[in-house]
Design brief:
Blueprint: E1 7-10, E2 15-18, E3 26-29, H1 32-52
Antiparallel strand pairs: 1-2, 2-3
Length: about 70
């Protein structure tokens, strides 16, 4: 099992998401719930394409942290 970092961003019309370790793997949605579903499906589709091309699946190397400022 491979875990990938997903970055969610609030936009003026909903949400967008991308996966830093899978360049070009992006999704949009009007709600948080829809974007979670859409990015999951985008990752699956992206990985299927990589495998179909005979390429190796990228390892997850991204990390994140939330910093709190007063």
């Amino acid at each position: 099992m491979t875990k990938y970092l997903v970055v969610y961003e609030k936009t003026a019309t909903g949400y967008s998401a991308y996966v830093p370790d899978l360049p070009g793997c992006i999704a949009t949605g009007s709600t948080k719930k829809s974007i979670e579903k859409n990015i999951y499906e985008a990752i699956q589709f992206h990985l299927e394409g990589i495998r179909a091309e005979g390429l190796s699946v990228p390892k997850s190397t991204s990390a994140s942290e939330v910093l709190v400022f007063a």
